[in-house]
Specification:
222 residues; four-stranded antiparallel sheet; 27% strand; 5 helices; alpha+beta
Length: 222
Amino acid sequence: MKSGTRVGWLVAAAVPLLLAACKGEPAPEVQDTGIPDAIAQTGGKPAAPIAKKDDYGNPLKDRVATVGLLNKRNNLSQDLVMKPGETRRVGNVVLKLASCERTLPWEKPADEGAFVQVFVQDRATAQEKLGWHKIFSGWLFKNSPALNVVQHPVYDVWLKSCAMRFPGEEDSPEDAASTSSAAKASGSARTTSRPAASASPSPAASPSPSPDVEEEPANAPD
């Protein structure tokens, strides 16, 4: 048997085996998103009382915080959009959001903060069983992340935004940004359209026709 024929026969025999292995690949495991009872029963009431709208902005139930979660093992991060009092689980990590605040419009420097509790399911030694441990409980600040840091070898948690408004402001920070962008766009459109209108000549100021080039030799001497 020639070498080329032998190689072709081996490839033809290996293809069905590879296809069978692909078809027999186990389905991905379903990730558990249920909140453990031990964590669901902890925390109690929110850390901060619900503020009245006329005092310090809209109530806690109407605020929305965006918290970033990073898994250092696979370098995957995701944003968790939560309201105060909400609990979210991602794999073996549970986040509880108790409060969400930002500085008043006239306060400087401006910052946003959220009171977060982080629980991780792990074991201290190989002999121990898996258990839930609280690794962080405190305020996270968007513009001052170094003031309070979640210290864990695998997971990192940080605050990305706290959406809330005060009396006299727009409906939401997103609406304010979109309104400002639309106003700038319309203003620039009006600015660019004005020179085009003024540059167009009016019928009364139309220039006189230029003399024909062929008439110039007629005035020249023979």
